[in-house]
Amino acid sequence: MGKLLSEIFPEILQYAVTIITISIALVKMNWLIFAGIVVTFPLVIFTSDMIAKKINDLARKRRGKYDELADIALDNIEGIEVAKAYAIEETLGLRVSSKAKEILKNEYSRNRYQALANGIVLLMKWVPSVGCSLIALFLVLKNTITIGEFMSFLVLFGKISTSLSELPFRIIDAREMLISVKRIEELLCAPKEVSGDYKGSELKNVENIIELKNVSFSYASGNTKCFENRILKDINVSIKQGEKVAIVGASGAGKSTLLKLLCGFEEVDEGDYYLCGQVFSKWDINEARRLISYVPQDSFLFPETILENLAYGAKNIDIEKVENACKKAGIYQKVCELPDGFNTEVGERGANLSGGERQRLSIARAIYKNSPIILLDEPTSALDEQTEKIISKTISENHENTVIIIAHRLSTIKNVDRIYCMDKGEIVEVGNHEELIRKKWNICCIIW
Prior knowledge:
This protein is 57% helix and 13% strand. With 448 residues, it is an alpha/beta fold. It comes from [Bacteroides] pectinophilus ATCC 43243.
């Protein structure tokens, strides 16, 4: 972008000004000479423009293929253990090699067209030069212009021909750079999250802290919503403050999507979502999320220390509170055994820790935040039985926070106040554990 503004655009402006001023001088000298330039040079510019469009298409493909290569390389690195386990390193290597060959082929085509453009423009630059010089010589012989005017024409023509010849090249460079600029603009101009202005500094004394009324949702396909394939259909949920609620269902039933909806990561298509008695769309999005702690299915840790991950964003870290959160998440003893304790670097995406340790730290982070609402998406899927009991005990003994948990393990949700059973985006059954287990042929029995 810097080169585009500091070099390319000024040169284009300089060439344009030179062409305009010299054209005026040539018209005053003799209109016939200027007519020769007008007739011949557009052919050069038109030819250059046609080649430039092809080069721009190749440049656009090049950017896309480089992105694809980066994605493939990243997937190969992150999945190296799976690749080794299944002995597919060679297959993954072929993916990289294949994409690299596509890039090389595209680069070859682009360089070929670039060389062709240079050759054609340089060749065609002589056509106007020879043609206009012959016209000027003819006018001298006819005594229409003087020798002095002829010499002036040669000097002016040298100036304007250079500008007319270089201008297409600079336009080609500018177009290619604008492709990169447009890609950046697409990111910068991505739609912002919808946010209202309601702060809700204090929790209202409302009957339901979370309430969904006839909520439906579908993911977008491209830039359009696919309403025919709804992920959630007419969802009705009411959760009081301090309640422990579980959501169960087969894979793909819409459980994780429902939690994302509660966090405001997605917007409802139909129906209403109320948070603390207020329609969620009217909430200031950041204020609403301060009321929610979210533990996703795939635990994510920043490449910082354990302490920084647990209290990320906190201005003043309460060490005692951190330790208490770790004890409740069953990770405190493990952290204490590490050489650097809470100052241990977790690595990229928590690579220095096991899956269960990452999951427990994510739970500890949610406990440390101490939000009124805690959303847990499969929080014990990577935990052993003993640690799972610690987490389950922590959830059942937490009488202050509202906890919504997705789980497949019966032991994790056995003691919750209410269980919502989902199937194909719909809530098909509601009740506590005992009520649901007494029913025959219900979906919960199939899941458990």
